[in-house]
Design a protein that fits this description.
Length: 187
């Protein structure tokens, strides 16, 4: 009986360690996506500003430069780490998941995989603690690239048409964050 109790206690302690590690991973991921959401909101503000037909090309170029910086920031957030492991790389946690290729055309390469990282949080109960970046960041990056390019071209109509794509990208980020929040509450 004593051995059974010790084994049960040991298993319970391991589940608690797994829960703590899962919580840290999810919190770090959510923090990165919160920053990404703020950057995307700023990009939307810039799109509204850049869609004004009274702006000169030099003003649109300045806005495009800021959007380009937001794009670089988004890639950096996609490459966020926790204890030296990339959060959004799937199983390839030692490889930076995103590479910004300036082009032309500008593209972002995903170097991770679609692997699900599972943690056992109770006997027979596992929880996926990651969301590979290729499932959400490409839509965000594409929206930013299009916005920047339309601003550089001085195409205010296209900039106005970029607003729904920015909104959809924000909705995508919010859905991933909601999933993280639900998992954190469960833990």
């Amino acid at each position: 009986r004593a051995l059974t109790y010790r084994a049960t206690l040991s298993a319970g302690e391991q589940y608690l360690r797994n829960i703590d590690a899962a919580r840290a991973w999810l919190q770090a991921s959510d923090t990165a996506l919160a920053s990404a959401t703020e950057a995307l909101q700023r990009a939307r503000e810039l799109a509204v500003q850049g869609s004004n037909d009274t702006l000169g090309l030099d003003q649109q170029q300045a806005i495009a430069t800021e959007v380009d910086q937001l794009l670089a920031q988004m890639v950096a957030l996609g490459n966020s780490t926790l204890r030296g492991q990339y959060l959004f790389a799937g199983h390839r946690t030692q490889t930076a998941p995103f590479t910004l290729n300036q082009g032309p055309p500008t593209t972002v390469t995903y170097n991770g995989d679609g692997g699900a990282m599972l943690r056992e949080i109770d006997a027979g109960v596992t929880l996926q603690i990651n969301t590979p970046g290729n499932s959400f960041l490409p839509t965000v990056v594409t929206a930013l690239i299009n916005l920047r390019d339309h601003l550089r071209a001085g195409d205010t109509a296209a900039v106005r048409n970029d607003l729904p794509a920015l909104d959809a990208a924000a909705d995508t980020l919010l859905a991933v964050r909601a999933d993280f929040g639900a998992k954190l509450n469960r833990l």
